[in-house]
Amino acid sequence: MRVTFDRDTCIGMYQCVAEWDAFEKDLNDGKADLVGSEEESEDVFVLEVPDGEELDAKFAARTCPVDAIEVYDDDGEQIV
Ligand code: SF4
User: Fold this and answer.
1) From the CB of 3, is ligand 1 less than 6 Å away?
2) What are the mean pLDDT values of the chain's consecutive 10-residue runs (80 residues total)?
3) What domains appear along the chain, each with residue ranges and CATH number?
4) How many A from CA of 55 to the centre of ligand 1?
């Protein structure tokens, strides 16, 4: 499972931080950071979801008010 995070779209409401500790607050930028991710394209970050954190990743994606977080299964199909 893979998560993508569009940091440009993020408006820093931090609901995701409450759902999954892979997300941390960056109060200087008013954005979240996806810890351990790689920048796939400009301001879009990707992380392979660690085992056991799949539910947290999905909750984080569902709670984001601006849909900055997307979750994909191993076949590349979007789940959230
Ligand atoms: S919930 Fe969405 S808008 Fe809020 S900090 Fe997380 S990614 Fe950004």
Assistant:
1) no
2) 98 97 98 98 98 98 98 97
3) 2-72 (3.30.70.20)
4) 17
